């Protein structure tokens, strides 16, 4: 049933994409991009899930298992969790750059409407 | 602030309505819907075919789980992947974050030199001191100032900004509340929560128990700074949150990461190889260079995020005058 999570991630990505494509308020476009990023996190964490598995932590494993058996047993995929950490940091960095650009555009053009930011003013 | 007041007064005046609040501008709604639906169909079809929860772990994950405890002494395989197996990936990500912070610093750079992220402009101070040196207050001015102080409920003499710390503010004064700090309830809660947050965050990073090490730890440190800023006001953090200091520390962290990784190349023959002795698991030195990398990452991430956040907050000072409206309309620079 984890495929429901995959499809939810697709839905989230498409909601974000729709917001970026149709909104003209630049803050909402950045929010749409953040939604698309969030869908990536949901997708990668869902992809790491294994049915009946435990967390990839070798310290004090659950009853009936040792650290050695955990290594070869049923744990969630740690590599995808690493990718998710990377994606979170990159998402924060990209959002910060976008927001600072949006604030500068708002200060320069006195509008957040992307449709009105057309003229080149020095 | 004045921008908001201007918008509000326009919205409240009869006959003129604030259009932005009434109507959300959109464009090409149907094209957007078709493209988003096409994307959903394509990705949804792809999602049906990818591995699900019963698939075996990929080889790279099994390798990381295998080497985590014997070779690195880390009980946290995610940490081992971030700083060991896929250390080069994290190395690149670090410098992507650094590039983003540098972009934010460049974009948000103010047009006038300022003392800090919040300080007033200091560009014209020297000229002002030459042209208009401060004069001793006359009898009229002293009388007017003391009358104003009485009216404001006896704040510290000579300090129009209020007492030195928010805790010294007398309760129940007739003067308007300063927006400098939050109430005593919030300040007490922050005083209790802050040490717990800081110690827990740093402990998890130092012992290598937190997946991702320095990344969540840096976010926790930023949270500590933001709590102090929100609760106690900007003057409490202004000695630490300065561009000169934060940028130097951030570049120090980035330099430490480069040195850590390059020493692997020089001493062990491969970039990001471990060159430190591995201690027993669950100690502060158990991960070798993974712990060093993680600590440098903590420095880099916490200062980088702080620079980005406070540069964005400080941008509020930088509104340029609106050329389209006359000086009578808006009343000076905003």
What does this structure look like?
The complex is a heterodimer of chains A (122) and B (334). Chain A is mainly alpha-helical and 122 residues long. Chain A has a single domain, classed as Helix Hairpins (Orthogonal Bundle), CATH 1.10.287.3510. Helix content of chain A is 66%, strand content 0%. Chain A has four helices and no strands. Chain A has helices spanning 3-22, 26-48, 67-72, 78-109. The model of chain A has no long low-confidence stretch (mean pLDDT 88). Chain B has 334 residues and is mostly helical. Among the domains of chain B are: 75-119 and 182-318, no CATH class; 138-167, no CATH class. Chain B is built from 14 helices and no strands. Chain B is extended, with a radius of gyration of 28 Å. At the A-B interface, α1, α3 and α4 of A face α3, α4, α5, α6 and α13 of B.
Task: Spell out the key features of this protein.
heterodimer, A: 122 residues, mainly alpha, Helix Hairpins, elongated, B: 334 residues, 60% helix, extended, disordered C terminus
Q: Which structural class is indicated by helix and strand composition of chain A?
A: mainly alpha
Total number of strands of chain B: 0
Task: Please trace the helix and strand order of chain A, writing H or E for each element.
Answer: HHHH
Shape of chain A: elongated
Q: The biggest beta sheet of chain A, please? A: none
Short description:
The complex is a heterodimer of chains A (122) and B (334). By secondary structure, chain A is mainly alpha-helical.
Topology:
The complex is a heterodimer of chains A (122) and B (334).
Chain A: H1 3-22, H2 26-48, H3 67-72, H4 78-109
Chain B: H1 2-12, H2 19-22, H3 29-49, H4 59-72, H5 77-85, H6 87-107, H7 125-131, H8 139-151, H9 184-206, H10 214-232, H11 234-237, H12 243-268, H13 289-314, H14 327-330
Helix pairs in contact in B: 4-5, 5-6, 5-13, 6-12, 6-13, 9-10, 10-13, 12-13
